[in-house]
From TrEMBL:
The protein's name: PDZ domain-containing protein
GO MF annotation list: endopeptidase activity; serine-type peptidase activity
CDD domains the UniProt entry points to: cpPDZ_CPP-like, Peptidase_S41_CPP
SUPFAM superfamilies membership: ClpP/crotonase (SSF52096), PDZ domain-like (SSF50156)
Keyword flag Hydrolase: yes
UniProt keyword annotation of Iron-sulfur present: no
Transmembrane segments annotated in the record for this chain: 29-49
């Protein structure tokens, strides 16, 4: 099973069994070797600084040993030690690596098991703060006027600077009926407090519909566990599987082509993306991506030749399509399917989480970068470029609020959404071509 960096941003993901095979055995044996030396160093440092317990420097030494033997790049351990002592893990490593106390780890784990009670936001990390990626329809956040691209700079008065997306999500969520205060920065305007009341949120991750009787539209908001089964179910809803079934589930409707909308999709479990790409794979054994780091070198391939390898597909992306969403869009592009919209976010790293420490705390650590297809196309810091670039245009004097009021009601409307409108045009041209 694939274990993800369920980064509230961007849940970059990795196969647990493969990471254990590639990286973890070395980590388990090597960590003991490094600890003896590092403990001496940190014992001296902590005594000089007047720090408290043996456990403090033991854990810091343990963290440093894990970093040295698992991090994606070579790290100057001496400089990293100093930075961690001064200001924490993120000044030493990349922005997707985090330290979790035992309480933080417990809270993060509870997010996946508890019923979803919150305010209806998807968030990630941007400019050291928490960035609103999307707002669910008819949610508390939408009703009070929070919009995508807002920055959450504080939750209940606690600054979100250098806060992990999971930690922020945990602070935002709570019991139904309770209030939470978000301090929002919108563009260059003054910060504003929004008071919201938490409620149970109904979530969907894969939602199919028809644009025309022959054009299917599948909106994927995130790659969560079992999302691949939701996609398979969507094929039935769109009549695409009627050729393989004695029953037509859609009456007279049967999509001859589909638009997969990955806009404002922050990523998720790469295992789900791999399963989804199997549906469209030209051949068994095609390279989807390679994960490479200082201690990781693994290739992931398609498991089958897909049922829908010749189905006309257009993919929609934007600047908030990230991580696993970029894998799906990038690989489908490599396989010859058109991509419409804006250049994607450019998160091409893989995290392992949780790497547990002896104290009960844990690390989320970037262990690899991924590269797409046989040609190993880089994504990190680059993104996926669309074949047809289309942007939502904001008028010169239009305020953020007015733009949002125009944007969100029209998002997903093929008549008023310029990116979707272009995707329909491109798909219609593809559908005119003979299928193999």
């Amino acid at each position: 099973m694939l274990l993800a960096d369920k980064e509230g941003t961007f849940k970059a993901v990795i196969f647990q069994q493969n990471i254990e095979r590639v990286a973890m055995p070395r980590f388990r044996y090597v960590i003991a070797l490094g600890l003896a030396v590092l403990l001496l160093v940190f014992a001296l440092v902590f005594s000089i600084l007047g720090r408290v317990r043996y456990g403090d420097f033991y854990e810091t030494a343990e963290v440093m040993s894990i970093i040295e033997n698992n991090y994606v790049d070579k790290v100057d351990i001496k400089k990293c030690q100093e930075k961690i002592l001064q200001s924490g893990l993120q000044d030493c490593l990349d922005k997707h690596s985090y330290y979790y106390s035992a309480d933080d780890l417990k809270a993060v784990k509870s997010l996946d098991s508890a019923p979803f009670v919150g305010i209806g936001l998807q968030v990630n990390k941007k400019d050291d703060y928490i960035h609103v990626v999307s707002v669910l329809e008819n949610s508390p956040a939408q009703r009070v006027g929070i919009i995508p691209d807002d920055l959450i700079v504080a939750v209940n008065g606690v600054s979100t600077k250098n806060m992990s997306p999971e930690d922020a999500t945990n602070k935002i969520r709570g019991k139904s009926g309770e209030k939470v205060v978000l301090t929002i920065q919108r563009g260059q305007k003054k910060q504003k407090d929004f008071i919201l009341v938490r409620e149970k949120i109904e979530r969907f991750y894969v939602k199919p519909s028809f644009i025309t009787p022959e054009i299917g539209y599948i909106r994927i908001t995130s790659f969560e566990q079992l999302s691949s089964l939701e996609l398979y179910s969507s094929f039935y809803s769109l009549g695409i599987l009627s050729d393989f079934s004695s029953k037509d589930f859609t009456g007279n409707k049967s999509a001859r082509g589909i638009i997969i909308d990955l806009r404002r999709n922050p990523g998720g479990f790469l295992g789900e993306v791999l399963s989804m790409l199997d549906f469209f794979s030209p051949d068994k054994g095609r390279t989807v991506f390679s994960a490479k780091g200082l201690h990781v070198n693994e290739k992931f391939t398609t498991g089958i030749k897909g049922f829908f390898d010749n189905l006309p597909i257009v993919v929609l992306i934007d600047a908030n399509s990230a991580s696993a969403a970029e894998v799906m869009a990038g690989v489908l592009k490599i396989w010859g399917h058109a991509v419409v919209g804006e250049k994607s976010y450019g998160k091409g790293t893989v995290q392992e989480f949780p790497i547990r420490l002896s104290s009960g705390s844990a690390l989320r650590l970037t262990v690899a970068r991924y590269f797409l297809g046989e040609q190993e196309v880089a994504v990190d810091g680059i993104g996926i470029s669309p074949d047809h670039e289309v942007k939502w245009k904001k008028s010169e004097n239009q305020s953020e609020e007015d733009f949002a009021a125009e944007f969100f009601p029209n998002f997903g409307n093929p008549e008023k959404d310029p990116q979707l409108k272009k995707a329909v045009e491109v798909l219609k041209e593809q559908m005119k071509k003979p299928r193999n």
